[in-house]
Amino acid sequence: MTLDRADPEGAIAEAAKAYSNWGRWGEDDVLGTLNFLDEAKRREGAALVRRGVSFSLSQSFDMNGPQKGWRRRTNPVHTMLDTGTDAALGNQGFPHGIGGADDVIAMPLQCSTQWDGLGHIFDHGNAWNGRRAEKVVTSDGDLVTGIEHMAPHVAGRGVLLDVGHVIGTDGELPDGFAITEEHLTATAEAHGVRVGRGDIVVVRTGRLARARREGWGDYAGGGSAGLSFTTASWLHRTEIAAIATDTWGFEVRPNEFEHAFQPLHQVAIPHIGLLIGEMWDLDTLAADCAADGVFEFWLTAAPLPITGAVGSPVNPIAVK
After folding, report:
1. Per-residue pLDDT tens over the stretch 195-239
2. CA 117, CA 148: separation in Å to the nearest integer?
3. CB of 165 within 8 A of CB of 240?
4. Are strands 178-179 and 226-227 parallel, antiparallel or unpaired?
5. What predicted TM-score, i.e. pTM, was given to this entire model?
6. If I label 180, which of 11, 19, 82, 320 is the partner at 20 to 30 A Cα–Cα?
7. Angle formed at CA 169 by CA 165 and CA 175, multiple of 5 degrees
8. Do residues 113 and 316 touch, judged by C-beta distance below 8 A?
9. Distance between CA atoms of 221 and 168, rounded to whole angstroms?
10. By C-alpha distance, which of 208, 176, 212 is closest to 277?
11. How far from each other are the two terminal CA atoms of the chain, in whole angstroms?
């Protein structure tokens, strides 16, 4: 695909038409590309467990996070309802010396490691599978494609594409670096893995590693390496089930068009039906994959079944 930087509208319309999965799984579908992740694919993923070593791919959920308030996104606020102090002072009113602690957390569902659900992004008022956005997501939440529908399904073969190490310098790509299909293919070849139907692909750019070294800065919403808009064809053709990155926005930032905002989202979610993860922590997993030369693993990453949510925090677990 050749991009006209001055015409994001035209490029989005062309890609939406070429890579649409509308109707592929019936008019009532609520899973999108997760339909590619079937029982056979889960058995394939489970068979990859050899050593039994596991990795959490989640950032922390606390006040020391990347959010700065864009679109009212804040870092998590954790509050204790009952504490050890209360128990020690006998203020809890329980018999025979028993005490306990309770807590509550308040946070946007997409403030740290998370999935974008199918109700998260629309194209000209159209949601996934051609439904009208106002009929799908209302003040009561996502009435059709709420993230809870995906909760049982996100477990299978995971594949790491460490583009930061294969293509970048010292394991990192610079801000504004657009990862193309050629970069993804070259990385897969360097790792000795194939990417295909039903896979959960995780792409490491090194952006999170830099944020941890230098401070959050503009990690949430600023410049970053990410997928090029031109990868829409690859995302559709490979029939992957889901994809996640270590960046805030999944696609390259600044975006590749003038006066555009997240155009690849506008194709990938409402038209391809793709499950997208952001702000995943892939560094420890990447180091282990490099050490043992194995870049595929069992991966489970279920969203919280929050009824009607358009996104969800997640603690992905990779097992090798």
Report:
1. 999 999 999 999 999 999 999 999 999 999 999 999 999 999 999
2. 9
3. no
4. parallel
5. 0.97
6. 320
7. 100
8. yes
9. 21
10. 208
11. 37
Cβ–Cβ under 8 Å, residues 248 and 279: yes
HSE-CB of 4 using CA atoms within 13 angstroms:
10
Q: Which amino acid is residue 131, in one-letter code?
A: R
Cα-flanking dihedrals φ and ψ of residue 92, to 5°? -95, -15
Q: What pLDDT digit, counting tens, does each position of 160-181 carry? A: 999 999 999 999 999 999 999 9
* 81 phi, psi to nearest 5 deg: -95, -35
CB 243 within 8 A of CB 277: yes
Distance CA 135, CA 139 (A): 11
**158 near 202, Cβ under 8 Å?**
yes
Query: What value does the mean pLDDT take over residues 7-14?
Result: 97
Which tokens belong to 117? 């659900």
How far apart (Å, rounded) are the C-alpha atoms in residues 126 and 317? 33
DSSP the chain: ----TT-HHHHHHHHHHHS--TTTT-TT---GGGGG--HHHHHHHHTT-SS--EEE-----SSSSS---GGG----EEEEEE-HHHHHTT-S--STT----EEEEE--TTSSSEEE-TTS--BTTB-GGG-BHHHHEETTEESSS-GGGGTTT-EEEEEEEEHHHHTSBTTBPPTT-EE-HHHHHHHHHHHT----TT-EEEEE-SHHHHHHHH--TTTTTS-B-EE-GGGHHHHHHTT-SEEEESSSSSB-BS-SSTT-S-HHHHHIIIII--EEEES---HHHHHHHHHHT--EEEEE-PPP--TT-SEEE---EEE-
Residues 6 or more apart whose Cβ sits within 8 Å of residue 2 = none
Residue 195 Cα distances to 4, 49, 232, angstroms: 29, 18, 15
**CA dihedral (174, 251, 195, 160) positive or negative:** positive
Q: Are 134 and 125 in contact (CB under 8 A)?
A: yes
Domains and CATH numbers, the chain: 8-70+108-319 (3.50.30.50), 76-106 (no CATH)
**Phi and psi at residue 266, in whole multiples of 5°?**
-65, -25
